[in-house]
Each structure stands twice: as structure tokens, then as C-alpha cells.
Design goal:
By secondary structure, this protein is of the alpha/beta class. The chain contains 16 helices and twelve strands. A six-stranded mixed sheet has the order 3-4-5-2-1-6, covered by helices on one side. It has a six-stranded mixed sheet with strand order 8-9-7-10-11-12, sandwiched between helices. The longest helix has 25 residues.
Length: 443
């Protein structure tokens, strides 16, 4: 099957790129141009015509990539044409008429690249991250993953486990031959070292995921404190409806911001109060859930009516800034109970002290985004596999201590498999290869 799709952005543009990949690419080029194939990997100007009538559709650049030296590993071509909607639709319509040609599914070109061994799963994911990167820090992280440092590390750890497993498998296959004590000691030491490395990787404060998904800030607090006004002020646009009627915000309203190059997802939530309205109660429940998952909480209260008992006190316990709004209406000093919390006194109506609040937010961002070259986890998928690998390694070490080799080997196989699943590489034949390389089995 041959697939095709618009590879450039949708909408009107100066140039559009239509990508085609599969066994029929040669035929597609010949039918659309009425000429033989251009030289491989050379940009060639060609007229692109209607297949049946030879009527001119457009004139553009064709680049022909014979497989396997292409992005997908198959025969592939790119049609660089004028970016008008009618041009793109006309060319795609002609390709669809050619036998065994269909529109590509989302991500299918990159999926083919993975299946044909051109890239691993981590690189495939990093390509998606690079395309969706909105800030410089997200771009840099995606590029680092693309360069293969994460893949190298996970493959290196996996190779170490395969080597250990080969010794354990040999003992199972040849029970009458005792493993030398130094080998048993080496198995324990090497597997402990791998476990230590995985523990270190997991202990990264989830910085990689925060960079990729955005630093999550939840604006929470009682009704009519100015939460929606604060969201609009930080976003510099009307994101949320502002009203003096209590309970206006009933759902979570979310917007993405770029604060000094840091990706931020900021959420306005329903005002928290006792309510009999079922919809509002659901909104309040969502508010508390969002606050629980947030990296930072902005707890907004009215300067004239502050009660930090109950839920407000709970919200302020961890990763929170107390935002005391409506300072312009304040007629006396703040209560002493406020001073024990990290707080900022502002007036959204007078646009007073907002810069100080933003400065506090930036300090939180900088603290959270401190990371070194060793951040290797960028998705929850990676973290889950590493945690599973860690659990199986701990179990392996316990069973290995009592020389229960059969059960220990299964734990080691599963640990190896979870590391392989991160990069999309799981092959039991590699274990057999390692055994034959290290042991003279036919003696």
C-alpha cells in the first residue's frame, strides 16, 4: 500500500509539501508528470498534470528518495507545490485515483520509519514533541532526545541486563555445572548497579514531563475573589468570563502561556464554597482535583474577608502562593495570620503589584526547571516502564540471593523487556546470541 498526505501545515501558504511513500511511488511520479523518474535526492522542476486529461494542475519541485535511503525506509517522494487549497486537493485527488494509494493516517510516515528500523520509539516521540514545541526549552529537550542520548542510556542498561541474564540462563540450561562464585558475585553487583542507575533516573522531580507538558498552575480559592480576573490579566486577554455574580465559573478554564521561555498551563477553577447546585458542586470537585495535581497553586482571596481555616489552609500547605486581592478596598492592615504564608498583596482592579506576583511565579518556575544533562524521562510511559523494571530487578536480587535461579531469571527477563519497550526494542534472540558468545556450549 502507498500512502500520501500533506506534510506541511494546513491553510494557504507559499509552498506546500505533499509526501508519498510506498511501493507505488515510482508510478505516482510517472503518471503525474508524464516523464521518467528524476535523479534520486535531486530537486527537479516538473509540470504536474491531471492523469486522464494531461491538463496542467501546477508546476513544482519533485524530490525522489529511493528506499531504503529515505525517511520511511520505503520508496518516497515529495511534491513541493504552490500552497493554495485547490492545488493541494487537486493533486491529492489524482493520487487517490492510482491503484493501492490511500490517504495516510496521523503519524503513519513516522510509524513506517520506526517499523522499518530508521528510528526508535524515543526518536519518534521526540519528533512529535519538536513539532508541538511552543517554547525554546521544549525545543531543546526534544532535540536532545532526537540526538539519541536517552536511547543510548536505556540500550546500555538493557545490554547489561541481557549479559547478566545470559549467565543465569546458562545456569538453568546446565544445572550440573556450578557457576563460579566470582560470577555469582558479578551478577549481583552488576544488577545492583543497573538498579541504582534506574533509581537515579527516576529521581528527576519529573522535570522532563513538566518541560514537555508545561508547568501546571491552578488558580483556586473562594467565589468572587478575582480568580478569573487574574487569569485574564496573566494571559493578557479575555479567557474567562468575569462577573460579580458568585459561582460564574463552573468548569476548569485552561490556557497555555510562555513565561520567560517556560511553558505554563494555567487553569481558572470554580470558586470553592458550600453549594446545593449540582453543577456547581461538580465544578468545585474539579477545582480541588486540579489543585491537587498542580505544580503551583495560586490561592486567591479577598483582602477584606480572609478565613484561612478549612480547605484554604489545606491548599496553602504545599507549593502555593497566597494571593491577597482587592488591596484597593482594604481599610486596615492584613491580619497577622497572613504573614506566616508566602503571600502577595495585589489589586487587579488598579493593576497594582502584579509584577511582584509574576516575579514570584517565575522564581517557582526557575526552581522547578533546574535540570542537568541526565534528564531522560519525558513521558509517563517511560516512567512506568522504568518503575516496572526497578520492581523486577529488586525481586531478582532477592531470589538470586537464595539461588532460586528459575524464578530469578523470569524477573530479569521482565526487567529487560520493560527497558526494551521504552525504545521499542524487544528481541529474545539477543539473549541466545549472548549465551553462545560467552559460553562454549558445544564442548
Amino acid at each position: 500500500m502507498t500512502i500520501y498526505a500533506l506534510a506541511s501545515g494546513s491553510g494557504i501558504s507559499g509552498v506546500a509539501v505533499i509526501r508519498v511513500s510506498g511501493d507505488n511511488v515510482k508510478r505516482v511520479i510517472k503518471l503525474l508528470t508524464g516523464k521518467e523518474l528524476p535523479s534520486p535526492r535531486v530537486a527537479t522542476l516538473r509540470k504536474i498534470n491531471n492523469i486522464n486529461t494531461s491538463e496542467l494542475i501546477d508546476e513544482g519541485i519533485i524530490i525522489w528518495f529511493p528506499g531504503p535511503e529515505s525517511y520511511t525506509g520505503e520508496d518516497m517522494a515529495e511534491f513541493h507545490v504552490h500552497g493554495g487549497k485547490a492545488v493541494i486537493l487537486a493533486i491529492q485527488n489524482q493520487i487517490s485515483r492510482i491503484e493501492n494509494c490511500r490517504l495516510a493516517e496521523p503519524g503513519e510516515f513516522t510509524k513506517l520509519a520506526f517499523q522499518n528500523g530508521k528510528i526508535n520509539l524515543l526518536k519518534a516521540e521526540s519528533i512529535a514533541d519538536l513539532i508541538s514545541a511552543e517554547t525554546e526549552i521544549q525545543r531543546l529537550q526534544a532535540v536532545k532526545i532526537m540526538q539519541g542520548k536517552s536511547s543510548e542510556k536505556f540500550n546500555e542498561l538493557r545490554e547489561k541486563l541481557i549479559k547478566i541474564l545470559s549467565y543465569v540462563e546458562a545456569k538453568i540450561d546446565f544445572p550440573d555445572e556450578d557457576l563460579p562464585e566470582d560470577k555469582i558475585k558479578q551478577i549481583k553487583n552488576n544488577s545492583s548497579k543497573v538498579l541504582d542507575e534506574i533509581t537515579k533516573i527516576l529521581n528527576d522531580q519529573k522535570v522532563g514531563e513538566i518541560v514537555r507538558e508545561g508547568f501546571k498552575i491552578a488558580i483556586v480559592g473562594p467565589t468572587n475573589a478575582g480568580k478569573s480576573s487574574l487569569l485574564n490579566n496573566l494571559a493578557n486577554r479575555e479567557v474567562a468570563i468575569v462577573s460579580e455574580i458568585a459561582g460564574t465559573t463552573r468548569d476548569v478554564i485552561e490556557t497555555h502561556l510562555n513565561i520567560d521561555g517556560y511553558p505554563v498551563v494555567i487553569s481558572d477553577t470554580a470558586g470553592i464554597r458550600e453549594s446545593k447546585d449540582e453543577i456547581e458542586k461538580k465544578g468545585i470537585k474539579l477545582s480541588l482535583k486540579r489543585a491537587e495535581k498542580a505544580d503551583l497553586k495560586l490561592v486567591v482571596v479577598d483582602a477584606r474577608n480572609i478565613d484561612l481555616s478549612g480547605f484554604l489552609n489545606d491548599l496553602l500547605k504545599d507549593n502555593a502562593i497566597l494571593v491577597v486581592n482587592k488591596s484597593d478596598l482594604l481599610k486596615e492592615k492584613l491580619h497577622s495570620q497572613i504573614t506566616k504564608f508566602k503571600h502577595v498583596l495585589i489589586s487587579l482592579k488598579k493593576n497594582s503589584n502584579i509584577e511582584k506576583l509574576i516575579s514570584e511565579i517565575k522564581n517557582n518556575l526557575k526552581d522547578k526547571f533546574i535540570f542537568d544533562e541526565d534528564i531522560l524521562i519525558t513521558r509517563e510511559r517511560h516512567r512506568q516502564h522504568l518503575m516496572q523494571c526497578s520492581d523486577h530487578l529488586k525481586s531478582f536480587l532477592q531470589k538470586n540471593d537464595i539461588k532460586d535461579f528459575d524464578k530469578a531469571a523470569e524477573d530479569l527477563r521482565l526487567a529487560t523487556r520493560h527497558l526494551g519497550m521504552i525504545v521499542g526494542k524487544v528481541d529474545v534472540e539477543e539473549i541466545l546470541g549472548s549465551i553462545f558468545n560467552d559460553f562454549c556450549i558445544g564442548k
